[in-house]
Amino acid sequence: MSAYDLPSRDGHFGPYGGIFVAETLISALEDLRQKYEYYRTDSEFQAEFAYELKHYVGRPSPIYHAKRWSEHLGGAQILLKREDLNHTGAHKINNTVGQALLARRMGKKRVIAETGAGQHGVASATVAARYGMECVVYMGSEDVKRQATNVYRMKLLGATVIPVESGSRTLKDALNEAMRDWVTNVESTFYIIGTVAGPHPYPMMVRDFQAIIGIEAKTQMIELFGRQPDALIACVGGGSNAIGLFYPYIEDSAVRLIGVEAAGKGIETKQHAATLSTGRPGVLHGNRTYLIQDENGQIIETHSISAGLDYPGVGPEHAWLKDCGRAEYVAITDDEALQAFHDLCRYEGIMPALESSHALAYAAKYAPTLPKDKLLLVNLSGRGDKDMATVAQMSGLSL
Amino acid sequence: MNRIAQTFASLKDQNRKALIPFITAGDPHPDVTVHLMHQLVRSGADIIELGVPFSDPMADGPTIQRSSERALKHHVSLNKVLDFVGEFRETNTDTPVVLMGYANPIEAMGYTVFASKARSCGVDGVLIVDYPPEESSEWVKCLDEHGIDAIFLLSPTTPKARIEQVAKLAKGYVYYVSLKGVTGASHLDLENVSQRLKELRQHITIPIGVGFGIRDGSTARAVANVADAVVIGSRIIEEIEHATQDKLLFQVASLLTDLRKAMDEH
Ligand SMILES: Cc1ncc(COP(=O)(O)O)c(C=O)c1O
């Protein structure tokens, strides 16, 4: 494989990506692109980012060998990249620290964010508090109900949470509303997008900030096992934790890259969020990518037990990696994810986020088909404390 | 000369400015749309902007969002919108119709299928909010081949180099968004608009319409004094939203007639 250097200067990953936004946002994106391009290679910026990741986020996150669970499954060894141990409990903070540092250098005193599960909202509220910025988080009113604890966490951190009542009242609508805020307040405001979606330069910038996951893994794998894993497995909502792990491995063609989407109640029920597995290319939220849409190009409501995967689009780089065959994408149902959630609790004493449980569930399916000396590295993108109420409810309990 | 050029040419002869109302196709009900279009023309509209409803209208404020949601409840697809235009053309062959909407319904239909159907239904121009010039070369080429004008937006933040780029691509008229923000916002800085239009005119040779934030006769007149066309959207949608079914056409007509009068009194 030749050197991978996407996106192109204008933000394209093959036919995907780009800057599909209204004229009113173009100059803000151009400003962001120029600033980011500068700081991307600025050693002082990179040093501060590294310092913050180490001392504030708590990186590097360890790789943990889930021996008991692997043994129980009776096949390949399952290794976990412990993003759940980061400050605020998920990979999302890697990106919000990076964007907040950029916002500060751009002189922005107000940050806004969209959130589904609330993890990105919490991570944004956290860095806003850390760097003394005002923070407004848009969240679909359905999600506000589903994720009450995270709403309160954001408020404790000093953020204003605005419930979004338009459309399907979930993550995609929160993103629409954040974009509307941004065009209105473009001079004072920095929009912290939470995943590798949106118009250029966001998919590239968020990937770069999350790539620390894969960069660390490459060194840790050699230290711990003397070799790289046979496959990487990560859940895909917008795709930021997955691309963070995959990106440094893209040119390592011996390592399989497997993204796991949410099959919800089953692909055949149409109540799912498996965009790459079932969608068609189109344009939404500033980029061209696969979308879950009807035959008229209207975006369809998605379903997943995990709010963080409940999104009808996917990052454009994943669309490209799928089309060119470098990465594979599979789907896991709510029930399978829930089973993996319980298994990891019981076999390893680790409570995974429901999003991450999708990646775990695929590993649990795949591992038994492989010999014991194969290594599967699963991105444990977040911890499951936020999901206890959902899991309890699924088990017929209420907390 | 196509219908848009013809309209601007004859307005120029009469020393008048174009009044361009925006409505969302299918709002409040698909049965009303074509009647409403004819009513707009009878009440003084020179060009009609017809919104294609979309599930995720990112650049619109709450009023137009709600109109899109109402239309989508009745499953008003892009195909259906084109049918409305075809029906309108059965009895109106002069008033230009410009479709305004978002990229994905067009992506789903395909550029060529869309352009040839739009052409045969009598669409004159298309403005896709999230197709900026950077991503539009194939799109514009396809519209060109079918004799449809590609309308583009310019904003208070558009720098000079881009104005030149838009000047090269744009056909029909350009649409100057008079404020930062989404549709339906209510502050409009006339001083600023007039200043900006002077700058734009150094590069743009086709007519310039101004929209966003125009709510009444006096703002419409003030804008008409400096621009070639006045676009009015959210204010009409509000009227549609609040009118009872039997009063709908009447109320929209009386709003538009007032605007027309105010614009022509200069
Ligand atoms: C723990 C966790 N994992 C994964 C995701 C999905 O996002 P992405 O696909 O961008 O990693 C989320 C989103 O909220 C999350 O909270």
What does this structure look like?
The complex is a heterodimer of chains A (399) and B (266). Chain A has 399 residues and is of the alpha/beta class. Chain A contains 16 helices and 14 strands. A 6-stranded mixed β-sheet of chain A has the order 3-4-14-9-10-13, sandwiched between helices. Chain A has a 4-stranded antiparallel β-sheet with strand order 1-2-12-11. In chain A, helix 11 links the parallel strand 9 and strand 10. Chain A starts with 11 loop residues before the first strand and ends in a 5-residue tail after the last helix. With 266 residues, chain B is of the alpha/beta class. Chain B has one domain (17-264): Alpha-Beta Barrel (TIM Barrel). Chain B contains 12 helices and 9 strands. Chain B has a 9-stranded parallel β-sheet with strand order 5-4-3-2-1-9-8-7-6. In chain B, strand 4 (125-128), helix 7 and strand 5 (149-150) form a beta-alpha-beta unit. The two termini of chain B are 28 Å apart. At the A-B interface, strand 2, helix 1, helix 8, strand 11 and strand 12 of A face helix 3, helix 5 and strand 6 of B. Pyridoxal-5'-phosphate binds at residues 90, 92, 116-117, 119-120, 195, 235-242, 308-309, 353, 355-356, 381-382 of chain A.
